[in-house]
Amino acid sequence: MRHSLLVRLIAGTVLIAVCSIVATAWLAARSTSGEIRHQQGQTLASDARINDALLGYAASHPRWDGVEGTVRDLARQNDRRIALVTESGTRIADSATGRPPLPARASAVVDPLAVDVSLVPGAATDRIDARAVGPFRLPDSERVRLRREVDAQAACRRRQGVRSGTILVGPGGRPYIREDGQATRMPRDDPLRPPLGGPTVSACAADPSNVPGALGSLRAPGPTATEKRALKQLAALVAPCMHRRVDVWLDETGKPTASAAAAECLAGARRTQLKPYVAPAALLYIGSPDDRTPRIDPYGIAGVTAVILGLAVAVSVLVATRLVRPVRAVTAAARRMRAGDGAARVRVRAKGEVGELGAAFNEMSEHLDRMERQRKAMVSDVSHELRTPLSNILGWLEAAQDGVAELDPALTASLIEEAALLRHIIDDLQQLALADAGRLRVHPEPVDAADLVEQIATVHRAAATAAGLALTTEVRGTLPLDADPVRLRQAVGNLISNAVRHTPAGGRVTLRAYADGGDVLIEVADTGPGIAPEHLPYVFDRFWRAEKSRSRQTGGSGLGLAIVRHLAEAHGGSATVRSEPERGATFTLRLPGRTRIA
Q: Cβ atoms within 10 A of the Cβ of 548, count?
């Protein structure tokens, strides 16, 4: 397909169209693409900030009361319209005045207990916002006490020559030390019991190998009274899900943690525990910013359009030149052939339709050349075939007229035989002429090929016996077909006569008839010398013989097989031959059966 002329033309047209479209689109988008990308980035960033701010508000407030001011501040800072609506459809807050219609789809669902991970990629696996701490939020007194302990640990580490790390504060107010990605560890001996003998300044100053939790194994301060109560409540919520008591402890940031097997139950229990402390889920609607008109450079468009036009002209000229060259070559060869050059050919290099045109011209030229040679050979063959009997008849008649020979019964019979041969040749030529003109008519009628084959064998058995051959038949069942019995006898008779002539004495000629699918096959097989593979394509040609001597003993007029082929085709069938040297030949007539015709 890639060499097809049609495909190439379409591809060229599409290429030009695509180049034009791409160039136009590029010019139109070049001045706006950067700004659009910038606006999209700003939009995504502002949407993330708005969603995160409202999640933080919901995580730290049990109701949405008072969020109106936060919504207006976020809308003013991000130049967006922001609206919060309950899941039942009641508006909680809207930055737009007059309460215009909401967008068709919500931008997000603000729910600190079920964070949308697509909007918050760093969300925890349990999808609970880290700022939702509920009963784990420490009062000021506990925060101050924990901060003093953490500051003491950091000072102790500095005195030991160890980097003190960074002191961070968790969402619930618990401080902890983080250094090189490693945080202080909460003791897990008993999650509801504070650590025994936590590190102090004096302990930090002693031998680190004898002080539990010193330096490298530094422990965070144990749970406070507030955290103990919250942990006890959370453990009670987890136990029914796991059907047993489950250990729940705090990590260094103050977040409740359990074993991997209890992670799902822990998440559900945390949602139950935190639900009274966070605002209910709400739909967040964020309006799109105003569109801005892109700037288009008219001079750039004109310049690129000129370049594309020049490219299109160049491609068109190149394609046209490549297409015209082989057409001119075919035209020149046709003129040479008209001038009498029968060997006029074109060199085929191209593929696709142009290559097929050149190959078809060469085939036509070769066919015409072959037909011309056959015509000349046919004229010579016809004159030779007609001259021989005419010369015999004329010679004996002149001899009888001159009194040299006596016109006795034997001579008369010989002259009649020569005249019959002459008439046979003329009849064959007439039939071939009718076939060439498309006027060879057959008159089909219902016949049984099995009966017809037996009749034909009976007629030719005497000639086969006289030649020292055995003529046998092999018929399989009833073989109904619609055929002209006279023409079919002629075709099969020609095949039998041809087999008898070419089979040496003592051989065998077999006539078969059988069904093959919806067709009826009639075969004539002999045990003669066979036909060479290079001669098989020419067996059904007129006046063709493997032996060029034209001996009357080895061949007839050379028209019998050509007539057989035309008669088979007139019945809607075909005639074929298969043979191997020294193994005989088999000629096959394939005719449509009556069932297939019906």
A: 8
Does residue 78 lie in a domain region? yes
Cα–Cα distance for residue pair 153/183, rounded to 1 Å: 13
Give yes or no for residue 57 having a pLDDT over 70.
yes
Residues 471 and 568 occupy one common structural domain = yes
Cβ neighbours of 555 (radius 10 Å): 19
In terms of domains, do 141 and 170 share one?
yes
Selection from 367, 360, 318, 372 nearest residue 346 by Cα: 360
Q: What angle do CA 72, 75, 81 make, to 5 degrees?
A: 110
First to last CA, the chain: 40
**DSSP bridge pairs for 167:** 177
Closest residue by Cα to residue 159 from 127, 114, 212, 200: 200
Give the closest residue to 113 by CA, choosing from 319, 266, 268, 6: 268
What integer pLDDT is reported at residue 473 of this predicted model?
93
CA distance 325 to 372: 29
Q: Are 495 and 564 a contacting pair, CB within 8 Å? A: yes
Q: Is there a domain that residue 55 lies in?
A: yes
pTM (2 d.p.): 0.44
Range in 344-348, 362-366, 445-449, 486-490 the model is least confident about: 344-348
Bridge partners (DSSP) of residue 513 are 475, 522
DSSP code per residue over 422-471: HHHHHHHHHHHHHHHTT------EEEEHHHHHHHHHHHHHHHHHHTT-EE
- Could you tell me where the beta strands, DSSP code E, fall in 200-358? 249-250, 256-257, 282-286
Question: Would you state the structure tokens that stand for residue 274, as one six-digit string?
Answer: 């935190």
122 with 151, same domain: the answer is: no
Task: Report which of 495, 498, 509 is spatially closest to residue 568, judged by C-alpha positions.
Answer: 495
Q: CA-to-CA distance for 111 and 51, rounded, in angstroms?
A: 10
Backbone angles phi, psi at 567, to 5 degrees: -65, -40
- Gyration radius of the chain's alpha carbons: 53
Q: Are 550 and 490 in contact (CB under 8 A)?
A: no
439, 458, 455: which is closest to 447 by C-alpha? 455
Tokens of 2: 């890639």
